[in-house]
């Protein structure tokens, strides 16, 4: 997943890990807001901790509208967060690309993190 999307998607987890590291709530919020578009090695380490702690990656739903065909909504695991803040693309396995009709034309896929 892209960096800025992941900062929003895992907001509560990041704030919790920053609090454990000694940040106050206000400091953690300001740090996360600033580093939403700027790479941070601390947040990158937190992303890796989240992925390892969830045993294979946190689950999310990928959805490509219209959701009429089988496979247009799938549960996937998030295994990597991109560290290039200018790369705002979602990478997925080519094995599931056909069911999303992913023909690389720029249409969007919605991502919803599962609890």
What descriptors fit this protein?
alpha+beta, 3-stranded antiparallel beta sheet, 3 strands, 38% helix, 12% strand
Structure summary:
The chain is built from five helices and three strands, in the order H-H-H-H-E-E-H-E. It has 115 residues and is of the alpha+beta class.
Give a description of the structure.
- The chain is an alpha+beta fold and 115 residues long.
- It contains five helices and three strands, in the order ααααββαβ.
- The chain has helices at 3-9, 11-20, 25-34, 41-53, 94-97; strands at 59-63, 73-77, 110-113.
- Strands 2-1-3 form a three-stranded antiparallel β-sheet, with no helix packed on it.
- Helix 2 packs across helix 4.
- The protein is elongated, with a radius of gyration of 15 Å.
- The chain starts with a helix and ends with a strand.
- 13% of the residues are buried.
- The mean pLDDT is 88.
Could you outline the blueprint of secondary structure elements for this entry?
Layout: H1 3-9, H2 11-20, H3 25-34, H4 41-53, E1 59-63, E2 73-77, H5 94-97, E3 110-113
Antiparallel strand pairs: 1-2, 1-3
Helix pairs in contact: 2-3, 2-4
- How many helices? The count is 5
Number of strands: 3
Rg result: 15 Å
Output the strand order for the largest sheet.
Answer: 2-1-3
- Model regions low in confidence, pLDDT < 50 over at least 5 residues: none
Q: What characterizes the major β-sheet?
A: 3 strands, antiparallel
Percent of residues in β-strands: 5-15%
Alpha-carbon distance between the two ends: 17 Å
* SSE pattern: HHHHEEHE
Helix content: 25-40%
Described by the principal axes of the CA atoms, the overall outline is elongated
Mean pLDDT: 88
* Protein structure class: alpha+beta
């Amino acid at each position: 997943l892209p960096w800025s999307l992941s900062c929003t998607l895992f907001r509560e987890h990041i704030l919790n890990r920053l609090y454990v590291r000694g940040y106050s709530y206000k400091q953690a919020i300001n740090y996360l807001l600033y580093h939403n578009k700027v790479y941070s090695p601390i947040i990158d380490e937190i992303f890796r901790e989240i992925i390892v702690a969830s045993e294979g990656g946190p689950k999310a739903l990928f959805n490509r509208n219209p959701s009429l065909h089988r496979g247009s909504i799938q549960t996937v695991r998030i295994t990597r967060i991109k560290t290039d803040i200018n790369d705002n693309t979602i990478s997925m396995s080519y094995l599931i690309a056909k069911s999303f009709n992913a023909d690389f034309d720029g249409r969007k896929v919605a991502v919803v993190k599962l609890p």
